[in-house]
Amino acid sequence: MLDKKDFRKFAHQVVDWMADYYEKIEQYPVKSGVRPGEIFSLFPDTPPEEGEPMEIILNDFEEKIIPGITHWQSPDFFAYFPANSSYPSVLAEMLTATLGAQCMVWETSPAAAELEEKMMHWLMYLTGMPSGFEGVIQDTASTATLTSLLTAREQHSRYTINARGFTGNEKFRIYGSEETHSSIEKAVKIAGFGKENLVICRVRNDFSMDTDHLRKNIQNDLRKGYHPLAIVATLGTTGTTSIDPLKEITVIAKEFGLWVHVDAALAGSALILPEYRYMIEGIEDVDTFVFNAHKWLFTNFDCSAYFVKDKEALIRTFEILPEYLKTQTHGKVNDYRDWGIQLGRRFRALKLWFVIRNFGVHKMQEIIRDHIRLAQMIKQKVEDHPAFELLAPVPLNTVCFRYHPANVKQDSLDSINQQLLETLNQTGKVYFTHTRLRGKFTLRFMIGQTYTRQEHVEKAWELITRTAGKLT
User: How far is the C-alpha of 441 from the C-alpha of 411, rounded, in Å?
Assistant: First the structure.
């Protein structure tokens, strides 16, 4: 077992490894190429009876763990949405792990609670959120969405469901679009509404929510005796980064008395650019709003900024006060354990503080603007190339397209694009993922990793066109 002296020695060694990792990260295959079960088979079936030297453990990390890692921090990572990190964020995470603070209430670490409160104020300033909201850091947008729907449920039922459970007569309905994230369905199921009570609205040509269809669904449900409860609007859908028309949605919500939650997991970071504040027109009529700083604001996972208009409804939904958690400061400070699902809380505000201070507002804006510019560059290349076609608008940093050469029949396009995707990823030089848009197998080119630059994007596009040309 490590003593203080060896801890210092190996801590220096690990930090050197971390610095080397970032310097040579482009040398690793972006996507791990191991087979299912391959890593599992490398480890013994039982743990060691006696402690092992740290040299051996670190060597095994290098030889057995790293080959099974997909390198999300590679500038050649263009898959899913980013899970960004940065040098100041990593340093703060190291300090967080060292402190090992359990930040459930103010008294367990006053600095953690008060820095979190201040960071939420900073994020409101950065993103243009209006006064009247208060914020808390959740682990993920999935948790934040569940928190929102549970609060909506309790507020609407006057907190009787928490007390007595469902009667079977509530018949609540939740509304989202065809492009709504899968976490909405999960939240609807966990919160007890039932999957069948998630009403999916059509999308427009730009893949944003069709509010005419939303209104019709609400009216139909009212005629059938259902109780419309909440609408989940999305800014930056996972498939295409489409932007739901928030103002139109909030007008409908006010008309029918519905709760509005905004899932801006990716796009919320773009709000630090004043020219993208149009996305939150209508925000003053929203109940809750979440975005992931760990997606596109250079702060490593997990760190979701959750804003709520009615703090008392949130706390009343989640607050439980056993004797062992009572303190003399209760009610005078923010005890964030009452602001969500978990009792235990990490000191997430520290890494956000490090990032914002070290980058500064202007540098963060510069990087996000550049990612959006690079996405527009790829959009133009797709449109200019005779063998490729654009399948969705590009409002932010993700380009949806497919290979469509003239000599390939329509019914073969899905298979050839899937083959293209797999071939690209097998090279180890890039990592892309796909979606389906109106039934079409669609490649997604997401540009959002902290250290991705134009040369990485141009190299990836050249690889795409060269690889595609060899398939037909």
Answer: 11
Reduce the secondary structure of the chain to three states and give it as a string. CCCHHHHHHHHHHHHHHHHHHHHCHHHCCCCCCCCCCCCHHHCCCCCCCCCCCHHHHHHHHHHHHHHHCCCCCCCCECCCCCCCCCHHHHHHHHHHHHHCCCCCCHHHCHHHHHHHHHHHHHHHHHHCCCCCCEEEEECCHHHHHHHHHHHHHHHHCCCHHHHHCCCCCCCEEEEEECCCCHHHHHHHHHCCCCHHHEEEECECCCCCECHHHHHHHHHHHHHCCCEEEEEEEEECCCCCCCECCHHHHHHHHHHHCCEEEEECCCHHHHHHCHHHHHHHCCHHHCCEEEEEHHHHCCCCCCCEEEEECCHHHHHHHHCCCCHHHCCCCCCCCCCHHHHCCCCCCCCCHHHHHHHHHHHHHHHHHHHHHHHHHHHHHHHHHHHHCCCEEECCCCCCCEEEEEECCCCCCHHHHHHHHHHHHHHHHHCCCCECEEEEECCEEEEEEECCCCCCCHHHHHHHHHHHHHHHHCCC
Instruction: Answer yes or no: is 88 within a domain.
Output: no
> Is 44 a domain residue?
no
Q: Is residue 11 part of a domain?
A: no
Q: For the beta carbon of residue 26, count every other beta carbon within 10 angstroms.
A: 14
Place of tokens 């050469």: 405
Note whether residue 69 is domain-resident.
no
* Cα 266 to Cα 84: distance, rounded to the nearest angstrom: 11
- Residue listed under structure tokens 């009787």: 160
Contact 271, 280 (CB under 8 A): yes
Q: pLDDT, tens digit, for every residue of 372-409?
A: 999 999 999 999 999 999 999 999 999 999 999 988 88
- 226 and 156 Cβ atoms separated by less than 8 Å: no
Give the pLDDT confidence of 256-290 residue by residue, as tens digits: 999 999 999 999 999 999 999 999 999 999 999 99
Angstrom distances, CA of residue 2 to CA of 7, 59, 76, 157 = 6, 16, 37, 54
Q: Looking at residue 122, which CATH number applies to its domain?
A: 3.40.640.10
Q: How confident is the model at residue 411 (pLDDT cuts 50, 70, 90)?
A: confident
Q: For residue 54, which amino acid is it?
A: M
Identify the burial level of 168 via C-beta atoms within 10 angstroms of its C-beta, where 0-12 means exposed, 13-18 middle and 19 or more buried.
exposed
- 38 phi and psi angles, rounded to 5 deg: -65, -45
CB 300 within 8 A of CB 90: yes
Q: Count the domains in the chain.
A: 1
pTM for the structure as a whole: 0.94
What token pair was written down for 429?
A: 């030089």
